[in-house]
Automatic annotation (TrEMBL):
PANTHER family: PLUG DOMAIN-CONTAINING PROTEIN, TONB-DEPENDENT RECEPTOR-LIKE BETA-BARREL DOMAIN-CONTAINING PROTEIN. This is TonB-dependent receptor. Residues 552-1140 form the TonB-dependent receptor-like beta-barrel domain. Residues 132-240 form the TonB-dependent receptor plug domain. InterPro entries: Beta-barrel_TonB (IPR000531), Beta-barrel_TonB_sf (IPR036942), Plug_dom (IPR012910), Plug_dom_sf (IPR037066), TonB_rcpt_bac (IPR010104). It comes from Caulobacter zeae. GO terms for cellular component: cell outer membrane. Belongs to the TonB-dependent receptor family. Keywords: Cell outer membrane, Membrane, Receptor, TonB box. It is found in: Cell outer membrane. Residues 1-20 are annotated as: Disordered. Its main location: membrane.
Amino acid sequence: MKHQAPASRRVRREEARRQDAWPRLPVQSAARPLISGRKLRTLEGARVSERGLGRGRPMRTTRIRMAGWMGCASVAALLSAAPALAQETVSTAPAASQASPSDVIADNQVETVIVTGQRAALKSAQQIKRGADTIVDSITASDIGSFPDKSVAEALQRVPGVTVNRYASTSDTTHFSAEPSGVIVRGLSQVRSEFNGRDTFSANSSRGLSWGDVSPELMGGVDTYKNQTAELIEGGIAGTVDLKTRLPFDSAGRVIGITTSLNYGTLSEQVTPEVSAIYANRWATEIGEFGLMVNGAHSELNTISESSQFGRMGIFKDVTMFGGGTKYIPAWYRLAHTEFDRTRNGVAAAGQWRDNDQKFLATVQFNKSSYENIWHERSVQGSAFSLYNRGPHFEITNADANTYVLPAPGTTFKFDDEGNFESGIMTSPLGWVGNTTSASNDWAGYLIGQTSTGEPVIEPCYGWTGRTDCAPEQRGGELSATTRYNYNKQTTQDLGFNLKWDPTDRLRFNFDVQKVKAKLSNYDADVGLVSYANLNIDATGDHPVMTVLPGTNINYAPGGLANPNAWRFNNVNNHLERSEGDQFAARIDVQYDLGDGWLDSLKVGARHADREQTVRWSVYNWGGIANAWGCDQGGGGVNSTDYLWYNVDRTAPAANVNGDCAAGNPTTTFSGWDRNLPDVRSFNDIFGGDVLKTGMLTFASMDFVKDLEKFQKAFGYSNTGVGSSRWEAVCYRAGETNCFLPQEITDVSEKTNAAYFMLKFGGRDHTIGGFGISGNIGLRYVETQNESSGSLVHADFGKNDVRVCQPRGRPMGPDGLPISGAYVPQSLWCYLSADDKAFTDGLASASTVRQKHHNVLPSFNLKIDLNDEWQLRLAASRAMSRPDIGYLKNYVQVNMAGPDMNNVNDPLWVKDSAGNITGANLRYTAESYNPYLKPMTADQIDISLEHYFAEVGSFSLAVFYKKFNDYIQYGGFNQDVTVNGVTRTVFTRGPVNGDGAKIRGAEAAYQRYFDFLPAPFDGFGIQANFTYVENKGITNSNLSNASGGGGSNTSGGGLSQADGAVQVDSLEGLSKYAYNLVGMYEKGRWAVRAAYNWRSKYLLTAMDCCLAFPIWQDDAGYLDASVRYRASDNLEISLQGSNLLNTESVLKQQVNDASAGGLLKDNAWNRTDKRYLLTFRFKY
């Protein structure tokens, strides 16, 4: 006899199956295992299907369940592209092909009041959170459209526990971004990104998505998962963010919407367009129902970012000319103006089919996001001294102070009570500016550079010359003007197919396949020009002010700094990245409903993913051109020829110059600088014209910087014949293949296989002690197979010594005489073993590393219904996160060190019993990445108390705790390397799996509309949330996931973390406190919203790229607001504003160790546009 489900269960399933024919709210992800016949528990009993959002059942409530609510709310939510603010009366009659609503309710026409706009968005998000299987926070499309958030990252910062990074790169604090560039969940950056429940990623060295790539206009919703269930795809140790696009069956019928906007920035003073459109429809046929949805978006944004920045603080100890004590003087002051031209395009298309028997639902989805961002940047920097390559605790004493910085003649520096520099005119020590071999001090032809009038650029006022016509022995500081261009384009697209099949009322299948492709192209170039001037800096106001004065002992041609003759090409740099990645993934999920007992359903599934990623990332190819410290002309009686090419305006060719800066080697030919290279312009209007006071300045023309071919022709040594470092641009260097050197390429493939089971239990009818109990328990098994292809560069003995066995004479002692006693009588080669000789051949070989990892991830989620409004959650799981793609790079360059040839007692010598040297050992080391890295794991627990007291009214309080294992950080490890059949142990520094640590915190959230107030005040509402996060022992990784070589360690200012750094006691990106406060009003045709986001100070980077010090961002808050007016049923007009407080990002530099107090000093003040967006939304 065929088994029959209990009658009550059969009725409930049939009702749910017919409801599944109704349109869904736009929160589903087709790839997620949508199980028809299940109802998400909501305030009205409406069903929202979602993987990880729970089985749910209609709750115990005295409210009327509104049949057909789901279809009506779906229409309203989908039309958030053109949201209506009115209340409407609609018919809930289904399409002809669907089951009659009389099977669901007695009356097939129910008059329903639809809540749209902000209320609908918050209501939907609240329902998702309440019915979820684990800890989830959601944003719906209306919520994104309710305030001026023009990126997904901007929207996510409103979610409890989520903060964003506003810098182009965390290690480069000189480039403040107009739009957020990164997302951090609960203080951690290992956030997994999904598109419709499937993998999505950018083709860079990280693992996830660049959040700016995605058009927010395409989003139907965004879910943030903060804990795990067994069915969730692994990878989000911090959390998982799922971006969801709309589907055809989200609407009851045809939908057409068009949105046009005009964007204006107060700094850029540019108006840029935005446009998006959606078309969706569904058709009933004899073979079932079909649906089609096409959504497209185009956005252009022109914004300005401006920066006022101090360089690394010089610490002067007990310097007499500064009044003794400890004084802090910045090495430089920089002003930067960056214009961002961002273009973003997105397409989301979907087709759906459902058979008439409601057994099959097929969905195909295509999504493509294209992001292009172009920088045009100019900066001016005044520098009196340099701390490049100085140790992290370097201090300048009285004996050395006058070799670093000097007040201008007749002036002094002023300091505050804490020793901070307040004001003064900075100059530099004279340094080397030329030489003479003439007893009469004839300097003609021996100087580094000359003006067009024949005078030396810098007067050689050396005290030892006896000159009386100039004094003192100092000069103006360096004034640099830099032009930078950056082009970045990223594209991510995926094609997915999903099939849901319900063969019986208990058994359900979900099949899903996906192909995702990503590409990235980045070109970055800059040119720095240098002249000289006295630098009058006043730091007593809100921002430091720099006045440029004529330089001490500096000669200028007519026009001064406005004359290109006063400038030289100091340095040039370019960088290129061309990367791509693709992945194929397939999964199957099976669910079987067990009955009406405690055990609700059993779900099992498996997933396979195959990812290939190639990252081609060149070094930042920096080189010197006409910098004084790179040359040694004028010595040895050879006349200097620098003056022929030193100045920017030297356009005439010249033969027999010493263009490669080799003393006594004037054999190169200078082609002459292109006469169009100089770009003379004013820079005084930066920061409103209040921080820089000077005349016209000379920059390099942007036209040359942004064109790679013109760039090489203008500055490449092979074209110009000059340059202290013989610089050639990327794509023109020796040894390249398609613009990249072998060490600049990362080639990684990754195959993952996963299987899981998840048992759901309980429900509203199953209680313990009178409380409803439900939840799930499960286990996910994951296998990760990595393969990283690259190269091994063998140790090269020839770099250190000669590959010849020959006798050695006695070394010379300090007195200049041969030493007595024992010494090493032969060259090192004589003592090496045959194996070491074979191992150190200096060649290179291909290398492939294969590694397999296994992880078991249990999860448990429990929900306790305390009453009709209160519920308590417990979520416990183990999560994992795989290493960034860049960390798996396989490139190793082995270095060797032998014993000290002048020390017979060096322990690397091998001696016989008589003490005679008979052999030698070599020590092998390397700096590299680590393809053997294991995934990180975390054991995590969340406890959440939630109160739902209205349709849009809730309070939640959650605490969380994570304990990490195998946390990735910089360290050392031994690896066996085989060359020519010889294996040696190489001590390698790079990414390693380190010790575990902990993070913990709490989140509180509250929202409601004040419906209890009399009209019109009942339209007011509020949202508020607060986050507290505390790090307990997690150390910063001190790693960079992108490198043009084998070195993975973060570095800056000529230093590396491996060589020592200022000690910090905080995790990068972690704010201890953060909160959001949102005020809302929605009534009739009007809707208003003001949103304030604040976070406390946090460590931006443990080692800045340019200062070598840790950099902190001070606490900051941002205010955004919007006003919307529904002019008619088809037209809505809105005005949105962002950054309305003109908030500045204020940075501090940490000048000593945390254990010594972690003293913070001024570093930078960054600002960007206040933006306004005028929008017209049409719907039909």
